[in-house]
């Protein structure tokens, strides 16, 4: 027996052992636990937002379990989540959804991060009639497919930056504006683009630059050079976390002057922390902000959620975490109203959901999207090096005045 | 001689019976088994280039992705306007009847086998003159470029991806879809294996080996190497296209860079699997793909977030301990099992020389 043979034997026995361990399957409800499944991006290009999502889920599970859990037919149950890493890859996500359902016996799913991955998982959950409450798949096309078991607590992607165009038109005295836009080539960002196209048509605005950016976006200098030359009224950029970071980095490096800059994923990117004053005046779409006045009995207000989350994870919660926490509140509510673990009963209860959470009101439209909650816009404002996100639109929740136009780089200290 | 053949017969019929029974025996693992079949096909076809011909290609992912898009496009386009299907991220949904679905996927797979083969011929004509690292880098570029280009073509969904037609709703059995794709991929696996085995017994393989061992000498002996290299690549493309077509239908959602032209994963995996098992052997890629798949499915979920580190370690272990792959290692250990006769005197003489 030489070393190699031993190595080989170790390898084979490791495989046998793991096979044995994965074949022992869980059940939908095991003892006192309701088992939920989720494929989440812990590695790959969505890993930072994947972790935000997971933290949001975990925070809500802890909180609900601590506060008595879920009561079904007079018995208290606790939530438990089985996670897999989908590596930010739709192929892997679809495969893992299948695995969660078939091998782990999961009967209720939580969504993954990003529209692309949700698009890959939804057909699987639909096939097996597994209710899925998702918090991070905003693509409009998810809600037009007639999916019956898909429920999203967030507003569809096309609404993200429509408000920004309206705002720009308003500042322009009601006349159409000239828009430059650059979007990552992925399901979510391209849907944001559709929203802008609609808004442009509606307001009579003109799109003068319409660029597509590669995934894993690290450079958009070509677009910015064009922006410098054509001087549009609004620059719209969307490309998840990396898109937001790249945009601010290069805009400040190239000293691109544009009166209005609208983006997505600013808070997930921790823009103001990473880039400080350079990110000032950026206008960001958000599903949620801590200053909004929604309330529930588990997390209290948005501000309380913000403080608790900071204590637990050491950073301020981006909306990705907040909406993920809300997904569990929705599940809890549905289980209790269904008063049963029957998948179809739970699904029917989900359809009838109408509730307020710290994250916002939740009521599902016929396609499964949340129709009760508007998108908001905040603007990054700084005092010295201390930057804060101030809600500026829509006016109902606006806590601060919208600063327009952005001062030129030559005038900024 | 006869005894060996009888042994082979028992082995093959045993494997086929196991393959046919697998989706019933391990019902919950159907999707993983389908992946396994496809991975083996990819490893075997890569081995034709990398192992037999000595041309390390990273471009086979191109044909896999093409097959995926072609099958889905044909399946939709035969019955409905494709542009409307993919418009605005696929907001509109047309429903395929059962007959339409199967007709579509049948014709789609046919197209996805033929067109990649033709494209392989055309590209091969242009770049198979390159050798060694130059060829490898050039093919690496092919896959990446294809992904970026596909991400810009509106009619196939561009960056928003392409949702393939859902399995017909009229078939109520939730297991039917899994079985259908499993048997499809199993049939592809058998087809590929039979064809590759046939190549292994033919003069064609010897020519590929001659190209690998010394291309200039092969040419000097009057072999039109270019012709054989192109044909070899077309064979790979044919099977890769089919594999892609099946995977597209199974996954249900095609994304340009992450699913179709997924050079970072599938493209690297197929090389890794062939090397793990032992390139230049018939069974090497099969064993390599199987081990790799077990490793991946079994261990990856246990080490959440660290799986690529583990993969890196695996690659290092393979390269250091099994540079010739498992088959190569076995061959060195038990040469008599592979029908090789070693002249002990000669071996000793060589050892002394060193």
List the helices and strands and how they pair.
The complex is a heterodimer of chains A (413) and B (354).
Chain A: H1 3-23, E1 29-30, E2 33-40, H2 47-66, E3 70-72, E4 75-85, H3 90-102, E5 108-110, H4 115-127, E6 132-134, E7 150-152, H5 162-171, E8 178-184, H6 187-203, E9 206-213, H7 221-230, E10 234-238, H8 240-254, E11 260-264, H9 271-275, E12 283-286, E13 295-296, E14 300-301, H10 302-313, H11 319-338, H12 343-351, E15 354-357, E16 360-363, E17 376-383, E18 386-393
Parallel strand pairs in A: 2-4, 2-5, 5-6, 6-7, 8-9, 8-10, 10-11, 11-12
Antiparallel strand pairs in A: 1-2, 3-4, 12-17, 13-14, 15-16, 17-18
Chain B: H1 2-25, H2 30-53, H3 60-77, H4 82-90, H5 98-127, H6 132-150, E1 162-163, H7 175-200, H8 203-213, H9 215-220, H10 225-251, E2 253-254, H11 256-260, H12 263-277, H13 284-299, H14 307-321, H15 325-333, H16 344-353
Antiparallel strand pairs in B: 1-2
Helix pairs in contact in B: 1-7, 2-7, 2-8, 2-10, 2-12, 2-13, 3-5, 3-6, 3-10, 5-10, 7-10, 8-10, 12-13, 12-15
Describe this structure in words.
The complex is a heterodimer of chains A (413) and B (354). Chain A has 413 residues and is α/β, with parallel strands linked by helices. Chain A contains twelve helices and 18 strands. In chain A, α4 links the parallel β5 and β6 (132-134). The model of chain A is unreliable at 19-26 (pLDDT under 50). Chain B is mainly alpha-helical and 354 residues long. Chain B has a domain at 31-267. Chain B is 75% helix and 1% strand. Chain B is built from 16 helices and two strands. Chain B has a two-stranded antiparallel ribbon. In chain B, α1 (2-25) packs antiparallel against α7 (175-200), α2 (30-53) packs across α13 and α8 crosses α10 (225-251). The longest helix of chain B is centred in the first third of the chain and has 30 residues, at 98-127. The mean pLDDT of chain B is 88. The interface between A and B is large, with 50 and 51 residues.
């Amino acid at each position: 027996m030489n070393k190699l043979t031993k190595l080989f034997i170790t390898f084979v026995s490791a495989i046998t052992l793991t096979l044995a361990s994965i074949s022992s399957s869980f059940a939908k409800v095991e003892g006192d636990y309701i088992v939920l499944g989720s494929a989440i991006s812990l590695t790959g290009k969505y890993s930072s937002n994947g972790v935000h999502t997971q933290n949001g889920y975990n925070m809500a599970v802890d909180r609900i379990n601590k506060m008595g859990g879920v009561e079904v037919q007079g018995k208290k149950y606790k939530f438990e989540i089985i996670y897999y890493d989908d590596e930010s890859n739709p192929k892997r996500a679809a495969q893992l959804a299948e695995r969660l359902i078939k091998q782990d016996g999961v009967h209720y799913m939580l969504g993954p991060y990003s529209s692309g991955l949700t698009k890959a998982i939804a057909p699987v959950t639909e096939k097996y009639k597994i209710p899925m409450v998702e918090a991070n798949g905003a693509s409009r096309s998810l809600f037009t497919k007639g999916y019956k078991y898909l429920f999203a607590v967030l507003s569809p992607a096309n609404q993200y930056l429509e408000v920004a165009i309206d705002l720009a038109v308003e500042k322009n005295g009601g006349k159409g504006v000239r828009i430059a836009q650059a979007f990552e080539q992925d399901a979510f960002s391209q849907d944001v683009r559709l929203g802008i196209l609609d808004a442009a048509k509606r307001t009579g605005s003109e799109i003068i630059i319409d660029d597509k950016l590669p995934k894993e976006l690290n450079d958009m200098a070509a677009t910015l050079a064009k922006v410098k030359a054509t001087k549009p009224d609004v620059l719209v950029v969307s490309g998840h976390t990396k898109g937001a970071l790249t945009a601010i980095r290069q805009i400040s490096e190239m000293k691109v002057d544009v009166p209005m800059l609208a983006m997505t994923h600013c808070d997930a990117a921790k823009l103001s922390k990473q880039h400080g004053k350079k990110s000032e005046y950026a206008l960001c779409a958000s599903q949620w902000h801590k200053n909004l006045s929604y309330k529930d009995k588990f997390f209290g207000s948005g501000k309380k959620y913000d403080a608790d989350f900071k204590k637990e994870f050491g950073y301020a919660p981006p909306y990705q975490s907040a909406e993920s926490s809300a997904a569990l509140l929705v599940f809890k509510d549905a289980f209790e109203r269904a008063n049963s673990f029957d998948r179809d009963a739970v699904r029917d209860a989900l359809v009838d959901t109408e509730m307020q959470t710290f994250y916002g009101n939740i009521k599902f439209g016929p396609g499964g999207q949340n129709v009760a909650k508007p998108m908001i816009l905040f603007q990054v404002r700084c005092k010295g090096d201390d930057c804060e996100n101030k809600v500026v639109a829509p006016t109902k929740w606006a806590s601060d005045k919208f600063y327009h136009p952005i001062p030129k780089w030559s005038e900024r200290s | 001689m006869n005894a060996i053949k009888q042994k082979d017969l028992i082995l093959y019929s045993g494997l086929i019976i196991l393959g046919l029974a697998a989706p019933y025996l391990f019902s919950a693992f159907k999707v993983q088994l389908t992946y396994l079949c496809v991975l083996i096909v990819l490893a075997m076809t890569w081995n034709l280039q990398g192992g037999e011909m000595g041309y390390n290609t990273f471009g086979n992912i191109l044909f896999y992705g093409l097959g995926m898009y072609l099958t889905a496009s044909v399946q939709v386009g035969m019955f409905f306007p494709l542009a409307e299907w993919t418009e605005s991220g696929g907001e509109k949904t047309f429903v395929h009847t059962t007959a339409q679905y199967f007709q579509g996927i049948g014709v789609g797979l046919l197209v996805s086998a033929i067109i990649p083969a033709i494209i392989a011929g055309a590209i091969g004509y242009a770049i198979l003159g390159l050798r060694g690292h130059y060829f490898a880098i050039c093919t690496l570029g092919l896959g990446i470029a294809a992904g970026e280009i596909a991400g810009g073509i509106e009619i196939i969904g561009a960056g928003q991806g392409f949702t393939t037609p859902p399995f017909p709703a009229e078939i109520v059995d939730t297991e039917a879809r899994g079985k259908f794709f499993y048997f499809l991929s199993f049939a592809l696996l058998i087809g590929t294996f039979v064809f590759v085995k046939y190549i292994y017994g033919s003069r064609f393989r010897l020519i590929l080996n001659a190209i690998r061992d010394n291309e200039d000498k092969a040419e000097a002996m009057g072999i039109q190497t270019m012709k054989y290299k192109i044909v070899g690549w077309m064979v790979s493309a044919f099977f890769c296209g089919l594999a892609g077509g099946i995977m597209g239908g199974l996954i249900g959602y095609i994304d340009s860079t992450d699913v179709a032209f997924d050079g970072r994963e599938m493209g690297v995996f197929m090389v890794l699997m062939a090397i793990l098992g032992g390139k230049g052997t018939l069974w090497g890629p099969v064993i390599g793909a199987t081990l790799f798949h077990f490793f991946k499915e079994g261990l990856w979920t246990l080490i959440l977030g660290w799986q690529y580190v583990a993969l890196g370690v695996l690659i290092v272990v393979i390269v250091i301990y099994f540079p010739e792959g498992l088959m190569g290692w076995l061959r060195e250990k038990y040469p008599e099992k592979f029908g090789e006769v070693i002249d002990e005197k000669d071996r000793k003489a060589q050892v002394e020389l060193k």
